Model the fold of this input.
Amino acid sequence: MQATKAPHRFFSFLPHLSLIIVYIIFGINISSMKLGGQEWDPFVFNGLRFLSITPLLWLYTYYYCRKRKLSMRMKSKDFMLIVVLGVITGLGMEALLSYALQYSNAANGSVLGRGLMPIVTVIISLALREMGLTWRIMVGLPLALLSAVVIVSGSSQGFHLNSDSLRGDSLLLLRSVFGAVYLIGVSRLVGKYPLPLLISMEVTFAGICLLPFVLNMDFHYFASVSAAGWISLIYTSVFATILGYTLHNWSLGHLGPFKSSVYGYLLPITGALAGLWILKEHIGLNQILGGLGVLLAMYLVQKDRMQVLRKSA
Done:
């Protein structure tokens, strides 16, 4: 009996491990984009990011589906949903975040742009009656959000709300809403279609939305970008997009939108550690205490699911 329980518990933990890896990749990507962002226009950067990997994704998707004899057809309503999700990814999340940060700062972006996403997700899920509310969630979510505020408050541009940043902060809140809608929408498609097909379609429509910004640039603009800028683009495209999206959406299909969104609170931790390693930034007491708070909050939120997995094992 013990021999069958151990493998089951190990495989049930894989989606959690996968999301940890995802946010390590995303944390490193923050430092990468800080370096590349000094040279790239954010809309052009994200447009190239999606458009450059689209052919590669479709080649892999075709090979993947043909080898496994899987259909690449989708129901019309699901096709429209993935089109909307692609637009949300390109304009409602990535481009909107880049634009909002012009009127706010990175600290506010960590808290408002992503930190509120689990809270918005649970509100939508409760409204749709897709999940129940427990005391651990009621304690864990505010604790995680407060800990994220503590982490970013130690930076040179700490979290703050004022009239000067109201425009950017409002857009960051809207980005959290788009992120929650994206998670819930993708979770309804992941189990129905091959994952490479969903990612290829999402990236394709995200790239199409940003194509006008790319076409607006001339050869001299691209020639002026340094090697570091191109390396940043390659890392974001290959690792943060292809690998990150694949692992994230695979885990999303196993854990659901709310449980997956909570792992987003790891981003301030992994971002700070990546900054220490790559950019030689300083980690203070705020980051340490906030990181411990995030880990405790995630334990509380995930504990209910782990109890269910133990019973099923």
